[in-house]
Amino acid sequence: MIDYQYLIDYFEEFPFLVQLVWRISGVLFLAIVLLTIYLKAIRYKLRKKENEHVTFKKEYEALLVEYLYAESEDEQVSTEQQSIILKLKNHLPIKYKRKMIISVLYNLMNEVSGEMAESIKTLYYKTGLIDYALKRLKNKNWYVIAKGIGELRRFKIEEAHGAVIKFIKHPKNEVRKETQLYLVNLFRFEGLSFLDDLETPLSEWAQLQLLEVLQKFDDQQICDIKPWLKSNNNTVVLFALKLAQIYNQFEVKDILIDLLSHKEKEIRICVIEVLTNMYGIEAKEILKTNFNELSIEEQLSFFGLLENLVVPSDEPFIEKHIFHKNFEIQLLALKILKTINIDKFMGLDKLPSNKEVPEMFNLVNNV
Question: What is residue 354's predicted lDDT score, i.e. its pLDDT?
Fold first, then answer.
């Protein structure tokens, strides 16, 4: 006790600042010790949880494989399968276990097809997992709704169409995108009916995703895209133009020609590309006739495509635009001329020096 009192007295003799430094050092040391213990406890807890997850995952995988191979010949749920369903149901109220079951189910569904895929879908119903997904659609948070729709899409739950279609005009783009992907994944071209009265923009990324989904299915009949080509929503028109080109919709030719006078430049440029690729010489002649009415961007787009469709009879048109005011068009005209008439192209080198062509001639000639 004397020694302890001596230390206190000795400490109190120090100047105030020294005492303050020691007190702060003591508090920091204590904090470090406590934090170290806390971090070790967290690491132990996380490691334990990870081990539990691995154990549960293996258990669920084994149960699901067992479920698939326990199917009765009359296609009814067997006693063994019913027992597995009850086991899984008992784990569903625990969120992380439910997420793990869904993850294992989905991974398994990607590895099988036919009757086994249908068995997994049946299990999704029987366990009541579908009820959790549908419950998400009633949530106030948009990201929860999007996850719910995404899950219904992955498990191909067509019966949820009525509940999902309500979100096609949701204010959040992420929810609209999930709804669109659900419709197209499950109903293919019929699922594109939302384009009929779509008012919000269909982003370039969303268009690519929808096209990627559609192109997975070979044996399908494309629907009538004419109403979409006439849509007031420019992004819908652009998407319809992509469909026209990919699926060779030759019957929309008249609408495409009308779209050459569309008020949106991006659409006009896209139409030029579609027309030239689909109708070749015929479309090329139409565009050549109206060439002077096109914007510089459209003219440039046409010349870029003309490179692949040029024939000897195009020579007068090409030669006429060697002196075009746009440098890139001049360059393309020279490249095309070199392709169809090398002699005339070589003769350009003899033009008077006050012309602009010789400089570009050397550029093209060295390519």
Answer: 41
Residue 344 in domain: yes
CB atoms within 10 A of CB 41: 10
CA distance 116 to 109: 8
Query: For residue 160, what are the CA distances in angstroms to 130, 164, 296, 313, 335?
Result: 9, 6, 49, 58, 57
In a domain, 341, yes or no: yes
Evaluate if residue 292 carries a pLDDT over 90. no
Residues 6+ apart with CB under 8 A from 64: 84, 104, 105, 108, 120, 123
Which structure tokens are listed for 85? 């369903």
Strands (E), the chain: none
d(CA 86, CA 223): 44
Measured distance CA(287)–CA(4) in Å, rounded: 101
Instruction: Give the separation between CA 46 and CA 263, rounded to whole angstroms.
Output: 60
At 281-290, the pLDDT tens digits run 777 888 888 8
- Is residue 340 in some structural domain? yes
Give CA–CA dist 7/19, Å, rounded: 13
Range of the domain at 321: 310-367
Who's near 178: CB < 8 A, 6+ residues apart? 146, 149, 150, 153, 167
> Structurally, how many domains does the chain consist of?
1
User: What is the number of other CB atoms lying within 10 angstroms of the CB of residue 272?
Assistant: 26
